[in-house]
Amino acid sequence: MNVRKTGIIRETVETDAHGKTCDPIVRVCAFAVVKNPAAGPDFTDDLSPLFDIGGKLGDQLMGEIVGMLGRAPVSYGKAALVGVNGDMEHGGAFIHPKLGKPMRASVGGGQSVIPSNVKIAGPGAIMDIPLGHKDEAWSFDHFDTMTVMIADAPLPDEAVILMAVADGGRPVPRVGKGPITD
């Protein structure tokens, strides 16, 4: 695994966009900028080296970000930004087969599918990491997003792997938990 850099972004939400106060909600994202060994013009069926990179990054970074929350984690999400010499399947390979296990272990369970997002982009691209409740997949109050940007990544042959956790849902949620009608 060739890591160029890692980092952590922590934010605390104290009001909604209209200034209505809420209990503070802490969201924390860890990221790693890694060389994408599958990048380039040659197609490969074997993406297992990317699976292993995702799992190792989860083991290295998840404990630290969970420890930075104000309370126990209730929601989580993951994402990958793949440089332009890669493809969408590379992003999926980084975040799906092996990253989930260390994420669930770090949040103390995780019965729900971990929300995810992948896109192809250049340096400074904005990534929305979807968040959802770790144990209650239909908790509308926890359908949320943490938006991040890494100024110098991903380069064409890199990927940015992102993991996020939060200790609360959206500020001042008003959607409710009613019956699913759509």
Can I get a quick summary?
With 182 residues, the protein is α+β, with helices and mostly antiparallel strands.
Keywords for this entry:
alpha+beta; 60s Ribosomal Protein L30, Chain: A; 7-stranded mixed sheet; 3 helices
Q: From the alpha carbons, calculate the radius of gyration and give it in angstroms.
A: 16 Å
Distance between the termini: 43 Å
Share of helix among residues? 10-25%
Mean pLDDT: 95
The tally of strands reads: 7
Q: What is the top-level CATH class?
A: Alpha Beta
- CATH fold-type name: 60s Ribosomal Protein L30, Chain: A
Question: What structural class results from the helix and strand content?
Answer: alpha+beta
Contiguous helical run count: 3
**How many independent structural domains?**
1
Major β-sheet profile? 7 strands, mixed
Description:
The model has no long low-confidence stretch (mean pLDDT 95). The chain has three helices and seven strands, in the order ββαβααββββ. The chain has one domain (3-127, 136-163): BB2672 (60s Ribosomal Protein L30, Chain: A). With 182 residues, the protein is α+β, with helices and mostly antiparallel strands. Strands 1, 2, 3, 4, 5, 6 and 7 form a seven-stranded mixed sheet that branches. It is globular and about 50 Å long.
